[in-house]
Amino acid sequence: MPDVFNAENPVDKFKNQHINEEMDDDSGTEVIDDRAITDENGNCKLTNTFIKAKFTSVKHVCGTGGQKYINENKPDVNNLRESRAPFNIVVCRLTDATVSPCEYNGADYNRYIVVPCDVKGDPVLFEKSY
């Protein structure tokens, strides 16, 4: 993560919300709270996925490490890229939004990821994994 986090910068926001090399399935509540990760309304996110890799490895998906991905539900989105190899990820699911901080349970997976990339070739959102 950069020394100065700019929440308005989509790449910085992506790094904050989705990149964590050391993430484990028991750390969701703590990491999501420490990084102030919320939905667009400032509420607890229902799920958040962390990619257990360096940003440079994920960025590679926007180039030769990925291939074009078509989402039939979003035919007008043409910047999606699918990884050519699976990544280790931790998917954190909200278990209790009535406490502060919100509580999450995490699960480890090894899955292909899909990310939209900006014009500079950087991932800017986490679309999905499978």
TrEMBL record:
<comment type="similarity">
    <text>Belongs to the pancreatic ribonuclease family.</text>
</comment>
<dbReference type="GO" id="GO:0004540">
    <property type="term" value="F:RNA nuclease activity"/>
</dbReference>
<keyword id="KW-0964">Secreted</keyword>
<dbReference type="Pfam" id="PF00074">
    <property type="entry name" value="RnaseA"/>
</dbReference>
<dbReference type="InterPro" id="IPR036816">
    <property type="entry name" value="RNaseA-like_dom_sf"/>
</dbReference>
<dbReference type="GO" id="GO:0003676">
    <property type="term" value="F:nucleic acid binding"/>
</dbReference>
<keyword id="KW-0540">Nuclease</keyword>
<keyword id="KW-0378">Hydrolase</keyword>
<dbReference type="InterPro" id="IPR023411">
    <property type="entry name" value="RNaseA_AS"/>
</dbReference>
<dbReference type="GO" id="GO:0004519">
    <property type="term" value="F:endonuclease activity"/>
</dbReference>
<dbReference type="InterPro" id="IPR023412">
    <property type="entry name" value="RNaseA_domain"/>
</dbReference>
<dbReference type="GO" id="GO:0050830">
    <property type="term" value="P:defense response to Gram-positive bacterium"/>
</dbReference>
<keyword id="KW-0255">Endonuclease</keyword>
<dbReference type="InterPro" id="IPR001427">
    <property type="entry name" value="RNaseA"/>
</dbReference>
<protein>
    <recommendedName>
        <fullName>Ribonuclease A-domain domain-containing protein</fullName>
    </recommendedName>
</protein>
<dbReference type="GO" id="GO:0005576">
    <property type="term" value="C:extracellular region"/>
</dbReference>
<keyword id="KW-1015">Disulfide bond</keyword>
<dbReference type="GO" id="GO:0016787">
    <property type="term" value="F:hydrolase activity"/>
</dbReference>
<feature type="domain" description="Ribonuclease A-domain">
    <location>
        <begin position="7"/>
        <end position="130"/>
    </location>
</feature>
